């Protein structure tokens, strides 16, 4: 899926929308003209619209719906049978059946274009995600760190993250920094102040600390991050993700993890 393909799908959808709008406008305008002609016929023959509708085999409101009052009724197209009866009565002067069928064709084209656009957007999103994953996980310079798991261990006054990492590349990976990005927080009523003996201080959404950890090729290892919390973060439940920076400009990111700063 290329940008040109996606742009083509969007252009086709916009064109289909324009054709539907035009087909609806043409049918509505022809219906208004037919209604005016039927009003004149009713006056000339001394018949009500209900009576004329009965002669056509239609319900009374079918004719008034050709040009409804905006204050009370929203115009919408009628079925082919109703338009066929009106065409027969008016000598097909307004070609309502043909216009209704043209609208059906335009609506079918719009449905197909909508489905095609949704498929094109889904493919573009998937390919974009795959490209992002490939950029993140394909080894550069022979090293590729993967965060296999992050285990959360709550102690009486602190939270410890047990980070399990793996080097899927062919060269040494030098992990130099850990970044914990808070994506969601929920406040609790209780708040207890812990001490300040922690390696990673949580004070806002972006929190980081220096790390010195080496992984040989194909090595699996782990390290602990002990979290401390600023006063305003106490009594909070967090949803977060952990990113590890390695080999200067590479990044490995964990799945979503959850922990809280509610201590008793």
Automatic annotation (TrEMBL):
Organism source for this protein? Streptomyces neyagawaensis
Name the keywords, alphabetized: Coiled coil
| Coiled-coil segments | 6-33, 96-123
What name is this protein filed under? Answer: Uncharacterized protein
Q: Keyword Coiled coil on this protein?
A: yes
């Amino acid at each position: 899926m290329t940008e040109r393909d996606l742009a083509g799908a969007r252009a086709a959808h916009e064109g289909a929308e324009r054709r539907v709008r035009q087909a609806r406008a043409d049918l509505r305008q022809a219906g208004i003209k037919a209604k005016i002609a039927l009003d004149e016929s009713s006056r000339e023959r001394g018949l009500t619209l209900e009576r004329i509708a009965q002669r056509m085999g239609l319900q009374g409101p079918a004719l008034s719906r050709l040009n409804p009052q905006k204050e009370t009724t929203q115009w919408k197209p009628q079925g082919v049978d109703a338009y066929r009866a009106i065409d027969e009565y008016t000598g097909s002067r307004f070609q309502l059946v043909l216009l209704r069928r043209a609208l059906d064709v335009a609506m079918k084209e719009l449905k197909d274009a909508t489905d095609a656009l949704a498929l094109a957007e889904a493919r573009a999103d998937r390919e974009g995600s795959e490209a992002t994953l490939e950029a993140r996980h394909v080894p550069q310079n022979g090293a590729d760190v993967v965060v296999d798991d992050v285990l959360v261990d709550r102690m009486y006054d602190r939270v410890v993250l047990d980070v399990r990492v793996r080097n899927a590349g062919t060269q040494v990976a030098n992990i130099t920094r850990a970044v914990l990005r808070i994506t969601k927080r929920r406040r609790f009523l209780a708040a207890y102040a812990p001490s300040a003996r922690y390696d990673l201080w949580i004070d806002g959404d972006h929190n980081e600390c220096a790390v010195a950890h080496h992984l040989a090729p194909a090595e699996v290892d782990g390290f602990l991050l002990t979290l401390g919390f600023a006063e305003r973060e106490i009594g909070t439940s967090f949803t977060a993700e952990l990113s590890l920076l390695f080999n200067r400009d590479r990044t490995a990111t964990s799945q979503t993890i959850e922990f809280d700063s509610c201590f008793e």
